[in-house]
Amino acid sequence: MSVLLSLHALAAVIWVGGLFFLVGILRPAASSVPLADRLPLLSTAMGRFFLWVWIAIIVLLVTGNTMIFMLGGMGSAPLYIHLMQLLGWAMFLLFGHMFFSPWRRVRVALSAGALADASRAMSQLRLFAAINLVLGLVVVVIATGGRYWLA
User: Fold this and answer.
1) What is the domain range of residue 22?
2) Is 59 a member of any domain?
3) Cα angle vertex 150, ends 17, 76, to 5°?
4) What percent of the chain has pLDDT over 90?
5) Tens digit of pLDDT for each residue in 71-115?
6) pTM to 2 decimals?
7) Does the residue 124 lie in any domain?
8) What is the pLDDT of residues 6-55, one digit of tens each?
9) Domain presence at residue 58
């Protein structure tokens, strides 16, 4: 159980920490870079980040559901586990949308040299990343304190 919990926490840190870095640090720092240089930089950074998020999602699903199964299933899971599961699925779905829609449009627009289109899609990515960051921070609060005030 301790190995599963550790892997679960590491995957969550990679995902939520990466969102914090993208939204709170990289994007604002890159705003002073000319658009023609900024968009490829952000696209490359997000491509690398998205690979790690896919890995994190797999680890989160496997470890989380294994731990739930080991504890007797969702029927015996406390409320905070249900909330983490609900918000986690919302994050997974939003990430899937980010990956398959606006990020795909960013890459297509950049390869065609359409900076305005890439910029619009990147703005959508930033909004969705910010929403996912808020959801992820709420999950972290629930994961660390939920057993004490939502049991």
Assistant:
1) 2-41+67-149
2) no
3) 100
4) 97
5) 999 999 999 999 999 999 999 999 999 999 999 999 999 999 999
6) 0.94
7) yes
8) 999 999 999 999 999 999 999 999 999 999 999 999 999 999 999 999 99
9) no
For the record, the structure tokens of 102 come out as: 């606006």
Tokens of 53: 């998020």
- Buried (b) or exposed (e) across 47-79, using 16+ Cβ within 10 A? eebeeebeebbebbeebbeeebeeeeeeeeeee
Q: Would 96 be classed as within a structural domain?
A: yes
C-alpha pair distances (Å), 70 with each of 17, 18, 56, 77: 28, 29, 21, 10
The structural domain count of the chain equals 1
Q: CA-CA distance, 40 to 121, in Å (whole number)?
A: 13
Q: Tell me which residue has tokens 């997000």.
A: 46
Residue recorded with tokens 């294994």: 66
By residue count, the chain amounts to 151
User: What's the CA gap between 4 and 34, in Å, rounded?
Assistant: 44
